[in-house]
What does this fold into?
Amino acid sequence: MQIVVDAVRHENEEAHPLFFAMRVAFFVFATLVLYWVIHAGIERFGHRAIAAENGPLEIAQVVLALVGAGFLMLAAKVSPIGQSGMGVSALLLCFAAAREMDSLLERWFFEDAYTWMVGIPLASQAVALLWRRRHFLLVDLKWMSQIPSATLFVVAGIFLCSVCQFLDRPGVWGEGAFPLDESHPSYPVKLAIEESCELFAYTLLAYAGFDGYLVARRARAAVRRRTAAAW
It folds into this structure.
C-alpha cells in the first residue's frame, strides 16, 4: 500500500495545471449548454411542461445522477486507492436517482418503494464495501480529501440537501392568505426554479464523478509506472 500512496502523491504533485484547467473549461461549457437548452425548452413549451413531476427536468436529474454513479463505479474499479469513498459515493447517487423517481416507483409497486427496494440493498452494499476496506479507510479518506472532485461532490451534496430542500418547503413561497400552491398562476415558475436548482446540484455531482474517474485513471497509471521502475 505504501508504494501506492507514494506514487499517487507524486502524481498529484507533478500534475500539469493545464489538465485541471481543461476539465474546468469542459464543465463550464457543458453547464452553459445544458441551461441554454432548459431556457429554450421553457420558452417553447412553458414552465409547467418542463418542470412537471417526472418531466424533462426530473428525468435529466435521474440521468445525471446515474451518469455520476457510473463514473464513480468505474473509478472505484480502476483506482488503486480511494475505493471505499468512491464506491459509497456511487451508491449514494444511485439512491438519489431512485429518490427522484419515487412517484413512479410508488405507482408501480407500493408507498416508499424506493426506500425498501433500493435504499436498503444499497445501504447493505455500502456497509459491505466499508467492511472490506476497513484497514484502508483512513488512507482512502486522506487521498480523497486531496482531490478536487471529492470536494465538489461534498459541496454539491450539501447544496442538494440544504438549499434545494429549503426551496421545496411551502412556507418559503408564501403562506396564510397568499399561499403559492398548485392553484396559483406562478406555481409552475416555482417548480421550474426548484427543479433547476436540483438539476444544477446533479450536474455538479455528475461532473465530480467524471473528474474522479479521470483522476483514478491517472492514479492507476502512476502506480504502474512506479511498480515497473521498482522492478
Remarks:
- The mean pLDDT is 80.
- The CA atoms of residues 100 and 223 lie 38 Å apart.
